[in-house]
Structure prediction request, 462 residues.
Amino acid sequence: MTGRPRENAIGFALIAPFVLFFTVFLLGPFLYSFWLSLHEVSIYSDWYDRLGTMDFVGLRNYAELLFDDPEFWWSMLMTLYYAVLTIPTSIVFALVLAILLNSRIRAAGLFRTGFFLPQVVDLLVVGIIWMLLFKTPEGALDRIIRNALGGLGDSGRLSLCMAAGLLLAGAFALVAGTWSRERLLADEQASSRPMAVLLSLAFLVPLLLGASWLTARLAPEAGAAPGGASAQAKALSVAVTLLASLTLGTLAALLLRQIVALERRTGNDLVRHAHWATLTLMLCVPLVVAATGFNRAVVTPFFARQPVGLLDNPVTLLPVIALVMVLKNVGLGMILFLTTIQQIPKSVYEAAEVDGATARQQALLITLPLVRPIILFLSITGLMATLNAFTEVYAMTFDSGGPPTDFLGETVRSGKLTGYYLWTSFRDFFYGRAAALSFILMAVALLISAANVAVLREREPA
Prediction:
């Protein structure tokens, strides 16, 4: 055998190990999982003849998950909430660390090692350590918080929460307002949608708190305990709240756009300060209201006679887990951002400095656009991690899924993310439903990843 047939035979022989591995360990299980999702398997099946005792149910597993399983939709909502908590925070924190470490600070190598080291520690070990630290009442962090704030009293802790809300409003206004102002000054046609979304999210929490309080008192369910509300009233209040927050966020973003346009026309520094002051005032009320609700839902139970710890409270469970995951995974993003930033030619920054660009403008208008591929990569990998999140919930809730809460009349676990829900379905021998859930999650991941690519991909030159 000579010539092209021999080359083809060698090529097929070289790729044969990969094809065999792919077929046996990837394609085969994928097809079997889809076949399994069309069947009903339970604990009553004959495990000595699994293939012969499965009942073909078609798409019933998918239909039950999508239309008749409140626990599935709760896990999807909590996964979305968890993703919002972890992905943007990890990206911003990693980018800030990379920019700081790129500025030739002392002991930069020590800081790089310190921030990256948690990345190599097993996630189960990290989760157990943090669970012991937050455990009530003997955890170290739990004791530190009680000793630091226990002597303030209820009124003192409420005042501290309100002051934190005001401080957060000012910090958020400074960062987000500066970013939005720089974008609009650099490009008059820049979209106001990012700022509208940020402001809508800021308005959403206090509006949800107010709506839940109002529906609990104006729409009590017949026969329910005082303060209860029907599922329809709750759903309506959430829908109205979402619409109101989007409306307020859009109007606030348009107002800020007009202030920037006035600054461009007049060049007056007072207008620039008015931009920051207006945004701060917009955020003060919602964030102070949110801080008050946080004090009532978290701080007061934490210092009660029968204390409710941070891992035992449905309000704080996922934020605490998200904090742990950000601290663990920020090192990888920091290294990726730092490597990319160090590849940017110094002449680009020197030219911008000659043109009068400040360090903040260089970071927003040069560094940020050039690290967009890393942001896209971290967004997609972060999405995969949140959809499959299991180990951190398993470790930090001691395999309980977190404290119970109510959702659409059903009792659900506050920490039951989609990955944990998938695992419990397999653990409880509902293999058909678990397989169907995995394919639904795959479809969700593909859709969100495609949206991320469309938003963050670099625009081709015209």
Observations:
- The first strand starts at residue 39 and ends at 40.
- The two ends are 51 Å apart (CA to CA).
